[in-house]
Amino acid sequence: MRIAYTADQIRAAEHQLMARLPEGTLMQRAASGLAAACATMLGKVYGSRVTLLVGSGDNGGDALYAGALLARRGARVEAVLAGSRTHEAGLEAFLLAGGREAGAEAIERADLIVDGLVGIGVSGALREPYWGLARAANAAAAPTVAVDVPSGVDASSGRVEGAAVEAALTVTMGARKTGLLVDPGAALAGEVELVDIGLGPYLPDPDVVGLTGADVAALLPRPAAESDKYRRGVVGVVAGSDQYTGAAVLAVGGALLAGAGMVRYAGPGEPVAQVRSRWPEAVITELERPSLDGVGRVQAWVVGPGLGTGDWAREMLAQVLASDVPVLIDADGLTLVARERDLLGRDAPVLVTPHAGELSRLTGAGRDEIEADRLKHARGAAADLGVTVLLKGSTTVVAEPDRPVRVNGTGTAWLATGGTGDVLSGVAGALLAQGLGCYDAGSCAAYLHGLAGRIASSGAPLHAAGVAAAVPAAIRELTGRSASR
Ligand SMILES: NC(=O)C1=CN([C@@H]2O[C@H](COP(=O)(O)OP(=O)(O)OC[C@H]3O[C@@H](n4cnc5c(N)ncnc54)[C@H](OP(=O)(O)O)[C@@H]3O)[C@@H](O)[C@H]2O)[C@@H](O)CC1
Ligand SMILES: Nc1ncnc2c1ncn2[C@@H]1O[C@H](COP(=O)(O)OP(=O)(O)O)[C@@H](O)[C@H]1O
Ligand SMILES: [K+]
């Protein structure tokens, strides 16, 4: 599991650790990790040109001490001092090792840029001259190594106000910061390398968690000798309408290919015909009127994709929610819930899977605002609505009251195409039906869906049906041969 913390959590832990160590120890540990990472990136240190961007706080101190270590190994290191003050001992060590002060033009002659402008102490948008230096670093040919977090990224949320440094590598001290796992911050951090400074014993429960492939493999249900289709989990899909047939086909496909024992589909004539011809495996009920009578028992429902928002859709949603099994609500189902919150009043679990626009309808917050601070809005909605919220987008986040938010970055921007969300709802529904709770089902589905997207894309456009088709390959990649039984 990749775990990450807010700036306040890190500070509190650092405080406890620092009290037990001679002054400056932590910064020395941070700086030697940073210098080692820079050396690896440079390949050959001797004779290389390194430019440090140095702010007024300890982030700049880290950069100066690391610069001193690189200078001692024969690098030509220059420091652009951007703050109203500079870490004194760091600057002294840097100059003593042969480092030199320079103007902003040193950015252009660098082989490597070290961004020590601001770290966890940042507040608000970067001010001048930091702002200009960040842009100059982004425009330069040389790669940038960010110290702790790329300057301009809020360490606790991933939020960026104005400009931020675009790093090739972020060397983060003590523990990962939340903002390195959540876009837009995550997209600016590049590779993330963690330097152990001994903070571990002092860290609290994490703020956010990112599942690894091994975590997902351990959570995914697998059939065993005593399995049959009913015990493996039956998922019911209420999606599609005479106008939107594709959503039904994609949601059913996602559910079938993510390992449901059986998929029941219920809908009107047009989507029924499409689902029947595409997925002969599905057990289908053609509805004359909006009713679940005679559809059969399921262990979880997926409701909403392409369903429409009229009386028929509203009645189907109400009947699904009146059941006593977990329900995943997506797309049009969310529009209906936004109109009529009372529909959510049920005892059994609910997983909602909005994109930012749908969450905006549910909560009233602006779409851009949600995208800028995904964690805050997903957490807020989970608390307000009393459900598990899977907020889709470049970083998918899964929030449930009183648990660390799960974040997923396995996807690819190629997934931003119509219908891929319908596939995700089917995948997550299949995991719910197989017995995972909303939190695990949502976060494992996001991981698998992202990985399936990468497999389906391989760097080129994908289509939603191709993502569904790649779900078994994604599961195989995670679970390896042991999945064959
Ligand atoms: N503590 C430890 O043991 C260890 C800490 N470590 C390191 O210390 C870092 C934290 O250091 P920190 O607390 O000094 O804060 P930091 O991020 O350098 O910035 C603060 C200064 O930036 C400025 N500033 C703020 N916002 C700004 C803006 N928008 N635009 C422009 N300027 C802005 C503001 O300066 P002012 O404006 O007051 O001059 C403020 O004083 C941490 O990330 C890690 O790298 C490691 O060595 C491990 C051990
Ligand atoms: N920039 C992006 N990077 C990675 N994944 C993305 C990006 N944009 C969208 N996605 C993913 O693509 C899917 C789109 O879902 P959604 O918006 O519901 O589309 P639709 O309603 O057309 O099915 C979601 O799983 C989302 O996380
Ligand atoms: K930085």
Automatic annotation (TrEMBL):
Domain YjeF N-terminal: 10-205
Domain YjeF C-terminal: 212-478
Molecular function, one GO term: NAD(P)HX epimerase activity
GO annotation, biological process: metabolite repair; nicotinamide nucleotide metabolic process
Binding residues annotated for AMP, in chain numbering: 392-396, 421
Keywords, ordered alphabetically: ATP-binding, Isomerase, Lyase, Metal-binding, Multifunctional enzyme, NAD, NADP, Nucleotide-binding, Potassium
Manner of cofactor binding, per the entry note: Binds 1 potassium ion per subunit.
Residues binding K(+): 59, 115, 151
Cofactor list: Mg(2+); K(+)
Binding sites annotated in the UniProt record for (6S)-NADPHX: 58-62, 119-125, 130, 148, 247, 306, 355, 422
UniProt cross-references to Gene3D superfamilies, sorted A to Z: 3.40.1190.20, YjeF N-terminal domain
Transmembrane portions of the chain: none
CDD domains in alphabetical order: YXKO-related (cd01171)
PROSITE patterns linked: YJEF_C_3, YJEF_N
Keyword Thylakoid: no
Reaction equation(s) it catalyzes: (6S)-NADPHX + ADP = AMP + phosphate + NADPH + H(+); (6R)-NADPHX = (6S)-NADPHX; (6R)-NADHX = (6S)-NADHX; (6S)-NADHX + ADP = AMP + phosphate + NADH + H(+)
Cross-referenced InterPro entries: CARKD (IPR000631), Nnr (IPR030677), Ribokinase-like (IPR029056), YjeF_N_dom (IPR004443), YjeF_N_dom_sf (IPR036652)
EC annotation from Swiss-Prot or TrEMBL: 4.2.1.136, 5.1.99.6
Pfam family membership, one: Carb_kinase
The family this protein is said to belong to: In the N-terminal section; belongs to the NnrE/AIBP family. In the C-terminal section; belongs to the NnrD/CARKD family.
PANTHER family: ATP-DEPENDENT (S)-NAD(P)H-HYDRATE DEHYDRATASE, ATP-DEPENDENT (S)-NAD(P)H-HYDRATE DEHYDRATASE FAMILY MEMBER
Quaternary structure note: Homotetramer.
Function, as annotated: Catalyzes the epimerization of the S- and R-forms of NAD(P)HX, a damaged form of NAD(P)H that is a result of enzymatic or heat-dependent hydration. This is a prerequisite for the S-specific NAD(P)H-hydrate dehydratase to allow the repair of both epimers of NAD(P)HX. Bifunctional enzyme that catalyzes the epimerization of the S- and R-forms of NAD(P)HX and the dehydration of the S-form of NAD(P)HX at the expense of ADP, which is converted to AMP. This allows the repair of both epimers of NAD(P)HX, a damaged form of NAD(P)H that is a result of enzymatic or heat-dependent hydration.
Record's protein name: Bifunctional NAD(P)H-hydrate repair enzyme
